[in-house]
């Protein structure tokens, strides 16, 4: 999983638009997608709020980041904490009800569907405490899936719709069920290739 790198805003927007085209077969064009896709609006707002969140030299920047993030949540129905770390070419399809917690880490080329939760269990508090999932590169999280706690979802995995995951998932797995169980991927799960 790559580390966040500062890139130009236009390059990032182009990558996000390309991710929307790859992740959604109904995507009609960049202009329409930029105007109507709430997932794109949420990730673009997150990218702004994350910069504010990490700008420790600006007094009050974390407060401003949270206020902007909550305003975006009201408009998009998607809540992304500004402290989360999200990689490149991230796409949220249909988006409503997505929640991404403060210490979540999401790799590159990840696709989320509506109702996904990357939540914590509570308990660990304070600076540096990891409470939310780490999601590897090229992972697809199905509608309504819940990843709970400081777990890791290995790269190239698929989490099925409405699956609840509370334990680490090895790379290249398909996870289904409540409490999700992992099995090796066969490569025929009908997942969009990114």
From TrEMBL:
<dbReference type="InterPro" id="IPR018357">
    <property type="entry name" value="Hexapep_transf_CS"/>
</dbReference>
<dbReference type="InterPro" id="IPR042122">
    <property type="entry name" value="Ser_AcTrfase_N_sf"/>
</dbReference>
<comment type="similarity">
    <text>Belongs to the transferase hexapeptide repeat family.</text>
</comment>
<keyword id="KW-0198">Cysteine biosynthesis</keyword>
<dbReference type="InterPro" id="IPR011004">
    <property type="entry name" value="Trimer_LpxA-like_sf"/>
</dbReference>
<dbReference type="InterPro" id="IPR001451">
    <property type="entry name" value="Hexapep"/>
</dbReference>
<comment type="pathway">
    <text>Amino-acid biosynthesis; L-cysteine biosynthesis; L-cysteine from L-serine: step 1/2.</text>
</comment>
<dbReference type="Pfam" id="PF00132">
    <property type="entry name" value="Hexapep"/>
</dbReference>
<keyword id="KW-0808">Transferase</keyword>
<protein>
    <recommendedName>
        <fullName>Serine acetyltransferase</fullName>
        <ecNumber>2.3.1.30</ecNumber>
    </recommendedName>
</protein>
<keyword id="KW-0012">Acyltransferase</keyword>
<keyword id="KW-0677">Repeat</keyword>
<dbReference type="InterPro" id="IPR053376">
    <property type="entry name" value="Serine_acetyltransferase"/>
</dbReference>
<keyword id="KW-0028">Amino-acid biosynthesis</keyword>
<dbReference type="InterPro" id="IPR045304">
    <property type="entry name" value="LbH_SAT"/>
</dbReference>
<dbReference type="InterPro" id="IPR005881">
    <property type="entry name" value="Ser_O-AcTrfase"/>
</dbReference>
